[in-house]
Amino acid sequence: MKGIQIRIIQILIIVVLFFIAGGLLYGGTGRDTMGNYVSIPDKDIRAVVLSPGAAEVLFSIGLDEEIVGVSDYCNWPPEKVKAKKKVGGFSTPNIEIISVLKPHVVVLTSVVPYNIKEQLESLGIKIFVSEPSSFVELIDSIVELGKLFNRKEDAYRIVSYMKDEVGKVQSLIRTNSLRPVKTMVEIWDNPLYVASPDTLPADIVRLAGGEIVPSDTSGFVRISEEVVIALKPEAMVLGHKISVDDFISAHKNLSIIPAMRNRKIIVPDPDEFLRPGPRVVNALKEIARYLHPEAFSE
Hints:
This protein is α/β, with parallel strands linked by helices. Helix content is 45%, strand content 17%. Residues 14-26 have low confidence and may be disordered.
C-alpha cells in the first residue's frame, strides 16, 4: 500500500512539473476567428502583424517591443508603427523578410492566400486569424488576443470601454424612441459595392441606429443602381475617402433616392470605420449622431 501511495505522489509531481513547464513555455493561448487555439511563449515574444485592425488592438493593449514587423497598411498609432519593419501587403507579405524576423506568430486575416499560410507554418511560425464580422465578434477577438499575448487585463479594460460607449449610444436612441434609419453601407463606388448585415461595418451602423439595406445579402456584394433605387435608402454611409459632392456627381441616376435628395450621406474615417479595432467606437458615435441628431442635441 505504501508503495502505491509513493507511486501516486510521484505521478502527481510529474503532472505538476509538466504543467509548470508548460506554463513557462506557453504562457499565452488564444482562440482565433477560425476557432483554432494558438499558443506562444510568454517571454521574449516576437510577433508580425499583417492585419491593420489587429495591429491597433495589440498596441492598445500595451504591446510594442513584441511586435517586430507590420504590413505596409498598418498605420496606427503612427508613432508606434513607423518604427516597425514593414513586411509587405497584408495579403501579400514578403515571406523572406518575415522569416528573418523570426516571429513566433503572425496575426493575419483570412484574405491571406492559403499558400502563404502554408509557407509560414512550414517555417515553424504559428498563425492567428483575426477577422471579426460583428461587434460581438470584435470584442471576443480582442479578449482572445489579450489571452494570446498575456494581456488579459488590458484587453478587458479596452472591451469594457467599447461596450460602455456603445451602450450609451443605444440608450440615447431608445430613450428618444427613434426608429432605425434605412441605411446603405457603401464600400466602393465604381463599381458599387455594399456591406451586408453579416459584416462588421454593417453591424456598426446597425448599433448606431441604422436599418441595413439590402437585408438579404451576405458579405460585401456588388449592386446595381437600379437595385439601390428600388431599396430607397434614407441614408448612406460611405466606406472610402470620397467627398459627398463627388459621390453624388458620380451617381446622378441615384438622385431620386431619399439619401441623395436630403444629402443624408456621411463619410466617416475609413480606417476607424472599417478596421476591426478599438477605434470603431469613434465611427459608431459619429454615424449615430448623423443618423439621429435629435438624440444628441444636448
